[in-house]
Amino acid sequence: MSISRRHFLAGSAGVSALAVLAACGSNNDSSSGAPQSGGTLRVGALGKTSAIEQDPHQTLNNNSDFLISSLVFDALTVPGENPNTAPRLASRWEQLGDPRQWRFVIAEGAAFHDGTPVSSADVVWSLRRLHEIAGETKVPVTSPGDIVTDGPSAVRITTPAPNRDLPMLLRLMTFTVKQGTTDFARPVGTGPFTLESFDNGNARLVRNPNWYATPPTLDAIEVTRFESTTAMANAVLSNQIDLASNVGAVAGRTAEGRDGYTVMRRSNDVVIPVVMRTSDGPFADVRVREAMRLIVDRDAMVKQAISGYGVVANDVLGTGDPTYDRSLPQRGRDLDKAKALLAEARFDLTKTYQLFTKDEAVGEVDSAKLFAGQARDAGIKIDVVTQDSNVFYDETWLSAPLYTANWGTNDSVVFFASKTMYSGTKWNETGFHDAAFDSAYRRALAARDDATYQNASHDLQRIEYERGGYLVWGMADGVDIASSRVHGLPTLGGFGRVQLERAWLTN
Amino acid sequence: MTSESLRFAGSRWTPSVAAASSRRVATALTQRIAVLIVVLIVVFATVDLLPGNGVRAVLGRDATDAQIAAREAALGLDRPLPVRFADWLGGLIRGDLGTSVRGTSVNDMLTDKFPNTLILGGAAILVTAIAAVCFGALWSFFPRSVAARALSSTTIAVIAIPEFVIAVGLVFVFALLLGWLPAVTTTGPSGAPANAAVLVLPVLALAIPQSGWNIRVTRAALDEAAGMPHVAAAELDGLTRREILARHILPIAAPTLAASLATTVGMVLGGALVVETIFNYPGLGTVLAGAVTDRDAPVVAAVVALTGVVITMMLVLADLLRAWAIRTRA
């Protein structure tokens, strides 16, 4: 189709113009110090016109909408580094005597922007609405009755089975609105900023001086929605915005050479694994999967598919998890061993295998093409088929023997186990049914102490490493470009990028 | 038109001629509208036949088949294609552009965006027209000048360069390197471009490639008109160069130029889709791109209908001009 080709070319041409420009200066380290107050931070974030959404409980496909919602509203919990779950509207939480039950206590002094205190009824109403709209993937309970008030300032949530990770699963999605709210044109949240204006996906947010946590130092944040990373990079480099959020590796590389800019690299941002079907088809034999993992040149993938903005990985998902097992031997390229395994498994080298991909995550299509080229070195013929995202999710996802996926939550091993690998999940991308894995997963969720949890997590990782269906060659960084005036920016990967409430500007 | 040139043309404006002209116009208009409807049918059907489900695209990975079916039923998407198209076309005639797969009114989606694209496209057409007449005339009247030689090569070059290359080059030089003009479009509270400065680069990015073609057309039309016998006669009559240009050359060349500019309208609107993305310009282009991704037939068809009406109007105007010019020459 000519439009998409033109868009693609437009993107590449924009990038090359930036590359020329990058030669014009050198990077400047920003000074920090005590946060200064005041100022307006102008932020650019990606978002499509067609996907603009102000209802915080609907699917927020646009980074820009997600950013705005997470500044106006508060979720019960937010991402942290270690532990990976930090308090927000819920100041604390505890697992009750019945391990299926959790109690979340609302932060003291939490109030809506109009001054009304947040009640447990508001939280219950919001969680139930989210569950009704988005289902169990956002609130892992069976029915609305599993979410109830527990006194005026606490809620009780009952999961179908013990779930140690419930506080983690409620991060960022569980935006609390006033009981009964369904119209979000003029949203009343509890967050660090209030919405002053919203137009066409662009917003101006002003400081909420009464925020129950430490109020922000910025006076205001202006969010500009960008359709393309090229336009966003141009805007930050011509000083029309102060921060280009999640602008991508290529723009980051060009900005690194420029005076007055800081390039933020947030590790463990996006994973772009090659998905191999384990239940049937050409990759069902574990030796074939092992061979595929020995064929890939991980360093080359990181260098070329994601411009060096990332690190190699080791076929285990959840690299940012505090329990991530670094003792598993790092797989490297070993073509001889791969060929031997393929021969042993009688893998048909005369056939051409299709690797499906889509232009979704930055570097996703490139990663597929690079891998196909590397596989030729071992005699495997792979034909890369780039599909429209729509077609991909209708026809390929969860069924094809070989395709690329991308995921933005990478700080939890158990998250991936629950979403994509245990045999009961509806998103079983690799068709994985492994009794030992399921048992380790249940042990992790039922764990009442850290040691048991870590143990179970290591078991999950070892099984993934040995016989899982994911080829995880690397982890891409999230890349933001900021003017050197901007400080206190988010450092976490994935959705952690929206945590701008602590940002500040030097005058 | 002056009486003198009418006399030269050897014909008078009479009621019968007027009736014949309006019949011709009516026929041209009917044909154009018929073409537009056929185009809309093709667009509607094509988007519908594209693989991938629009409702699933909107509801996300989590949606169950039951949820998708429910949403499709709510939006009337479970009805046969001809019924949906007829329904949509009926709405279009009443000024209702329908409902998107997200359940929002297409009128609301396009109310802000369509004027923005018209401003961008209109300014680009205006710049193109001015450039075409000025440079085309310069080239035609001074064919051996340095300017003519420069135009001969640069017009070919800019025709060959796509809008996005020009756009990226302009951004690089005027925004990133010199810092004279904004790299991306900022909008005011109403959603329209904040000021004239933000329009300069996108308008140039659209106008430059189109100017190349139109300058060449203008020059050729002027050359042809200048070579006609009555121009030589006028020269022999001792008319000044300016009089000859205004009375004998431009009127003959005008229909060709108008037809070329009318065709350019379509090219500009097509180019706007790309240019709007590069400059983050809040126009129809981004709506259309998103709607194609979402398999949102009513939105795609609405954008095509709006731009189609604009293009049709321009083509009919060009038809009119030609009809009028031919009549004066008949």
Automatic annotation (TrEMBL), chain A:
GO biological process: peptide transport
Protein name per the record: Oligopeptide-binding protein AppA
Signal peptide span: 1-22
Positions of the Solute-binding protein family domain: 86-428
GO cellular component: ATP-binding cassette (ABC) transporter complex; periplasmic space
Entry keywords, A to Z: Signal
Gene designation per UniProt: appA_1
GO MF annotation list: peptide transmembrane transporter activity
Transmembrane segments: none
A Pfam entry, by short name: SBP_bac_5
Domain of life: Bacteria
